[in-house]
Amino acid sequence: MEPKWLEWAKSLQAIAQNGLTYSTNEFDIERFEQVRKISAEIMASNSDGDLEFIEGLFKTADGYATPKVDVRGVVIQGGKILLVKEKIDGGWTLPGGWADPNETPSESVEREVFEESGFIVKTRKLLAAYDRTKQGHTPPFPFHVYKLFFLCDIKGGVKTTSNETDDVDFFDEDKIPALSESRVLKNQIEKIFEFYRNPDLPTDFD
Predict the structure, then answer these.
(1) Which of 51, 142, 163, 176 has minimal CB crowding within 10 Å?
(2) Which residue intervals of 46-73 are DSSP H helices?
């Protein structure tokens, strides 16, 4: 569970973003800019984040504030799960990343799996839809995020690293390496193997 100060800061940022999207009165715009700055100051003072960076991040967010969407590809072959090693923190994760505009969720996850692992996949089923805030990922993230986990089948390609990953491999359930917990958690991997053993389970959510 995220700390209360982060929940408040994200709420203030969303209020400011929505206000700046729809307001035309110059005084209202000034007030919403102040609210956005306060949100950034709360985040910077309670973390190791740089205030200037956080303010710049918030200024790039426009339009009505909605959760960002992170897609993850689940590939299991011979009882082993496909993971990629992140360059940024050295942890392992399911291949994936942000969904892009003008792509369906399945197109986004298929692209991400190919870019990060070298495997061409076809999406078969949505396994889980999670709220990142409720799942216990670390470190906290300044925006609200939904995480979608899709079961995928390999159709081609070869194991290949990318500019974001420096290793690609398959792992047994009892030999999962240290994870990049910003992206995937041990209990989520355990849930995926439940789906593998019981393919008729309904989609997990929240």
Answers:
(1) 163
(2) 51-60
